[in-house]
Amino acid sequence: MHNSSRRGFMGKAFGAVAGVGVVGSLVAMKKTWDPLPSVKAAGFTTLDMSIYPEGELITEKWRGKPIFVLKKTAEMVASQTESQKARDVVVGDSHFMIAIGLCTHLGCIPGYNAAEKSFLCACHGGQFNWAGEVTKVPPPRGFDIPPFKIEGNKMILGEAGPEYQAMKDSGVTL
Amino acid sequence: MKNKEPLILVVVVAFTLLTYWLVEPFAHSQMHKHVESQNFAYADLAPIIKTGDAANGKALVTGAAACIGCHSIAKDGVPAGMDAVTAAGSYGVNPPDLSNAGALYDPKFLADLIKNPAHALNVAHKFDAAKGQMHPMIAFAGAGGDIDQEVADMVAYLQSIAVKADELTPKMAFEEACGRCHTMKYENWTQLGTKPEFKFEKESLAYDIKVLEYQEALTKYMGKLPPDLSMYFRSRNEHFLSTFIENPQSQLAGTAMPRVGVTAETAHKVIEHMADAGDTKRHERESVGKNVMIFIIIFAIFALLWKKQVWRDLH
Amino acid sequence: MAHFTKATSVKDWLNQRLAIEKVEKVMASEYWIPKNINFLWAMGMVLAITFTLLLVSGIFLLMYYQPDVKDAFYSVNYTIMRDVDFGWLWRHIHGVAASVVFLIIYIHMFTGIYYGSYKKGREMIWISGMLLFVTFSAEAFSGYMLPWGQMSYWAGMVITNIFSLGGLHMDGLVEWIRGDYVPAQAFLTRFFMLHVLLLPLAIMGLIGLHFAALRIPHVNNQDGEEIDFDAESKKYLAGDKAGSKVMRFANDFMSKDMMVVGIYLIFFFYLVFFQYGFALDPVNFDPADGLKTPAHIYPEWYFLWSYEILRPFSVNIGLMAFGFAQVIFMLLPWLDRSPNAVPASRRGAFSIWFWLLLIDMIVLTAMGKLPPEGIFSTIGLVAALAFIVLWIALPFITMNEKKA
Ligand code: HEM
Ligand code: FES
Hints:
By secondary structure, chain A is of the alpha+beta class. Chain A has five helices and eleven strands.
């Protein structure tokens, strides 16, 4: 048998050391694929909540994603169920529906029908109501809510304030 | 048969080193003249012999000497007379805020600057009074008393309000000493300060236009736009930067850049800030470098031991 | 169709389909290497490792590099050097490896010349090696354009101007190469394509050819000895490992290869982390400016000798001399008229020729970088003439060489 083509003890030891080097460089390679610090730093958006008209859906942008902002009308506020209240975002004395405007099924942007006050996702027919709850499958849950923090009239997206934390803890959003 | 490998190795290494020496250290010594550092002694400037009185200096700076006609002193609540762009329009460059001048600049330099700006700045060749070309900063001709005492007082005042040397960060040193003429894009620095983040592109473009207006005035004044310094730490070496800051004419005869008159310590901080911008990862490079070297040496030792084992049977 | 039986193991399954055992023998365990060779024969492996380093680091640079004249400099110096985790590491590895690879290539070439390893059936190894040298040169040059710094721009300007061929005034050709009147967007994008696609493909193909060319003649040895590989390998396989004049490539010679690679990597990584200035020229950290030539422009060190052959003469003669220098190494197997494939030390006049050529090329390299003034231009001129004279003299020197 070819003896020297088989690795002896030192051959295996050398292979192990080389393997450590390969693993080390894989770690560096993995980190090279990570999102850049400049991408992560761009993760905050500040919204002035005093400018939104009632009952109209406005789309903002945060981390490249659409953010739905709907200032609720007085009737909407009055008619809110318990579960809808749980998703309600209050700034000053205005009530808002704030959500990441991507369908929780596979990420298309649902369209808002102002007359029906509901969202329809064209991709696979999912539906949501004006409060952001899912009303028709396939989407598994209501709209996700982006981390937010309320500071006076302003809302900072990307930072988790107490109101957001409460929603997260109670499972209203993922 | 005797082993020729050590001899071969010596020959290969010797020729490699010879070539390296010729094309690197030797060639560069022939291409660039060597400028000796004077350690920021500013030997051509007269030392301050009088002991300054800060209170009197304050009265002069804010009064008779009329410094605050052009300069702001944020520390003492003296605002700027006009915004930076307008100021650049009238003087060519925005006159600096004097809050930290006492910490940034050499006292001898400050004294000389007050009495004869073009001389201290080493730009006398650019201003010819006979042709009506005056340095935008008006020389202080005395407030009636002993001019040397008055200047010493003003310097003492500036030193009394300035930050302590250890509170002067590299970033501050760069921005205050160099940042009115040079941008540093990779640090988001423009001649008008750190560019804020704007939500709307319109606001961002409006800011850029203000910067361009400032730069236009500056270009007219300097003859060309001072370069962006983001990568200067790597495109020039540390010795060049330090001797250039000390006396620009020594490295680039005829350059429009004035002598800025910073202390050795300020210059050191300025260069450190340039390193933070242009060679951000230098500390990481060193620590990763050390670990890789240790690993590679172990790798080589194991390779050697493996070779020894395999070759035992071959002889 | 071949006859397939139920496999007894994964290895057997593969073996029936891919003949892996056979391949392994041909390429590794029964690829026979003479024992009387020194560490200079490990340079090929060192080159393969260096190329791998270039390839891997290049792939990571490619993920963030932007081949756009407005963004290229920023993408290299801001995004890669500051923003990307370990981006600086890939760039330093890539830049240093691109420079060091030429040092190893030159050592490899001069080893070949010294031991006469381009003769007696080894002509194809030499030719494929020279083609690798030429493609590597093109690869390095095209890569040097990419950061779009001052040296990139002005090297691009000067080198493409060579193609106007002096008195022939082929300005149309120069513009065709650039796709513009000056190096600009079209130029950068096409050199980017060459650098990351066409030339690496060519290099990989040529490496394959180079290895294939080695398999039949086997490598030479340091004593110019004619070895009967069949007889010697039988002896080895019969168990007389110590008595045989040959050894296996794997693991016998490979373990030595790895030892040399280990020592080389110590040197290499030292350069990457602590002494990289020679490979990442400071001047190239100034962004390209088409209205301002840097005070001193010079090619990377590995092009200096041929650059210096161009420089001391008037345009047309300079270009001819330069063209001569580019092709002459390729013709070495035919310019050397002696059949002796033995070390230069045993070849009389050829030995002197060898050392003179080496020293002359080092002198040319040095003069190529120094400012072309005073004594330096005189030395450069003499060295350039000496280079030409040496090659013209080679056939006459070797014609009458005695059988060694
Ligand atoms: C397939 C293999 C390769 C890929 C994908 C690749 C990719 C790249 C990229 C994207 C750049 C621009 C970034 C930078 O400048 O640092 C670059 C630069 C460069 N490459 Fe490559 N490269 C490869 C192989 C090579 C080889 C074999 C050589 C030389 C023999 C080489 C020499 C250079 C040089 C000299 C630079 C400029 C380095 C600098 O200034 O930092 N490359 N390469
Ligand atoms: S993505 Fe909206 S329903 Fe499928």
